[in-house]
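May I ask for whichever protein you like with its backbone structure tokens?
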Amino acid sequence: MTAFFEGIQYLFVNILFAPLDFLRRLELITWFGANTINWIFMIICACAIVYWIKQLRIFDDAGTENQDTTAHSFLK
């Protein structure tokens, strides 16, 4: 049973966390390089928010959005 848990430890520590260890070492060299993943996610989220707001504006201008307070049965 000990070998099973040591196998799980090896999997997580030596294999699955290897990219995070790389980022930890990279932070000592360049902060921007280590945070590139964060910047990419922030850009993706900003693009998604802009797209979402554009879609909301399209439906609002067309008048197809149901803004009635009884749109859901639990609001009656």
